[in-house]
Amino acid sequence: MEKCFYCGNPIGEDERECRFCGADQRAYRMILASSEKDYNDGLVRAQAHDLSGAIDSLNRSVRYNKKNTKARDLLGLVYMKYGEPVLALREWVIAKNFDPEDELADRYLNSVSEDGGFYDKIDNATKKFNTAFKYARAKAFDLATLELKAVVRENPGMVKARQLLALIYIQDGEYSKAYAELKAAKQVDESNPLTTRYMKEVRSHLVSEKKKKRKERAERRSTVAINDGHDVVLMPRQTFIEALDNSKSGLFNILIGIAIGILAFVFLVSPTMKQRENEETRKALITANSTSASSKSDVADLKKQVDELNSKLDKYEGQADLKGSYENLLKAQLEVTSNGDLDVASKALEQVNKKLLSTNGKELYQNLADQIDQQTLVTKYSEGTTAFRNRKYSDAIDALKAVVDIDDTYDNGEAMYELAEAYENNGDTDKALKYYKKVAKDYANFYRGRNSARKVEELQNADSSNTQ
Question: CA 162: distance to chain centroid?
Answer without folding.
Answer: 14
